[in-house]
Amino acid sequence: MKQEDKYVDPLNRLIRDHEDVSEHLEVLKEVLGFLFEEKAWIKIKPIEDFFKRNLIEHFKFEEEIVFPPVLSQAATPDSIKLILELQREHGSILKELEEFQNIISKNAFPLDKETGKRLNVVGRNILNSLLPHASKEDDKLLPILKENIHIFDKHDFI
Predict the structure, then answer these.
(1) What is the enclosing helix (H) or strand (E) of 75?
(2) Which helix (H) or strand (E) holds 112?
(3) What is the C-alpha to C-alpha distance for residues 54 and 76, in angstroms, rounded to an integer?
(4) What residues contact residue 158 under an 8 Å CB cut-off, 6+ apart?
(5) 66 burial class (0-12, 13-18, 19+ CB within 10 angstroms)?
(6) How far lies 52's CA from each of 81, 136, 151, 153, in Å?
(7) Cis omega (within 30 of 0) on the bond before 46?
(8) Backbone phi, psi, residue 79, to 5°
(9) Within 10 A of 87 (CB to CB), how many other CB atoms are there?
(10) Cα–Cα distance, 35 to 22 (Å, whole number)
(11) Neighbour count for residue 41 (Cβ, 10 Å)
């Protein structure tokens, strides 16, 4: 495989990642309604795995590959403000994900009542922060990327 074959433009990657996140958040929302049933626990482990593998990598991709060229080559007061907001949100979402993962990794079905309540609160916090975060990226960041796609050099991704 040629090195250039590995290139995925940031715009398409972000769109694809956001679709994957939306699907997993829908399952999380559903599962939070019946945490004390075994079928919820069966569905929640893949969500945890997805967060671990994909969401953390997605944030890293944005922080290392997407944001620097925007800030260095397409900076406006609005784009700078947006990226600073998104970076702050990444930090708080990662803390919520860490707590979610800690609960999942240290517990097994059946959950005691207190742990179930805590997992429900943390799961809802993730939903309440990640959905608006992704929407903000879709509504504000993606148009900046579309307008400035030329700032991303293929060789930066290889």
Answers:
(1) none
(2) none
(3) 29
(4) 3, 4, 6, 7
(5) buried
(6) 28, 22, 29, 28
(7) no
(8) -70, -35
(9) 13
(10) 20
(11) 18
The angle that helices 77-106 and 38-50 make with each other, rounded to 10 degrees, is 140
Strand blocks (E) in 35-139: none
Q: Which two tokens stand for residue 27?
A: 């399952």
Query: How confident is the prediction along the chain (158 residues), in pLDDT tens digits per residue?
Result: 444 445 568 888 899 999 999 999 999 999 888 877 888 888 888 999 999 899 999 999 999 999 999 999 999 999 999 999 999 999 999 999 999 999 988 877 777 889 889 999 999 999 999 999 999 999 999 999 999 988 886 545 44
**Cβ of 28: how many Cβ atoms within 10 Å?**
21
CATH architecture of 3-157: Up-down Bundle (1.20)
Residue 111 per-residue DSSP state = P
Question: What distance in Å separates the CA atoms of residue 12 and residue 7, rounded to the nearest whole number?
Answer: 11
**Torsion angles phi and psi, residue 59, rounded to 5:** -60, -40
